[in-house]
Design brief:
About 40% of the residues lie in helices and about 0% in strands. It has about 150 residues and is mainly α. The termini are far apart.
């Protein structure tokens, strides 16, 4: 393989193209001038969104499943047959299912079954831990403080 690829346009083949081919190219160029781009139209086609299309196209072209990974690159640069088993679709899906199952089991183990609420006794508030939201340092709520302030006026 040469160090620098030859990107020059090859010379035209001998003879003239068929009239039908010239008409197709002219139609293609006309559509391109109108802003219709073949690749965009092809990508938007609902027929290409068919998940079994690749298998049908490969079968009609006589390609095997491994042929879809073929390359012209040297094996030291890209060797699709060198991938480990866990890098392929089935093994990745199985691994993902195992991880999801482990996460769900962990979630079920740590999930609370119920929360017990204990009412305050004798009209007094009971606080557990450091949760003193809405309460001043004396244990009075904001509403109690406001009521005391109105009574002192």
């Amino acid at each position: 393989m040469p160090l620098q690829p030859n990107l020059d346009i090859p010379p035209s083949p001998l003879g003239s193209p068929t009239p039908g081919m010239e008409e197709k190219f002219e139609r293609f160029l006309q559509l391109k001038r109108q802003g219709v781009h073949f690749n965009e139209k092809l990508a938007g086609s609902s027929a290409l969104k068919n998940p079994t299309l690749i298998q049908k196209l490969m079968a009609s072209a006589g390609l095997s499943k491994s042929d879809q990974y073929a390359t012209t690159l040297p094996e030291d640069l890209w060797d699709p047959s060198a991938f480990p088993v866990h890098a392929f679709k089935r093994e990745l899906a199985r691994s993902q299912q195992q991880i999801t199952k482990r996460k769900e089991e962990e979630k079920l183990r740590t999930q609370r079954e119920k929360i017990d609420f204990v009412p305050a006794t004798n009209g007094e508030r009971s606080f557990k831990g450091d949760d003193m939201s809405g309460v001043n340092g004396n244990g009075n709520s904001a509403a109690e403080i406001a009521g005391q302030a109105r009574g002192s006026k």
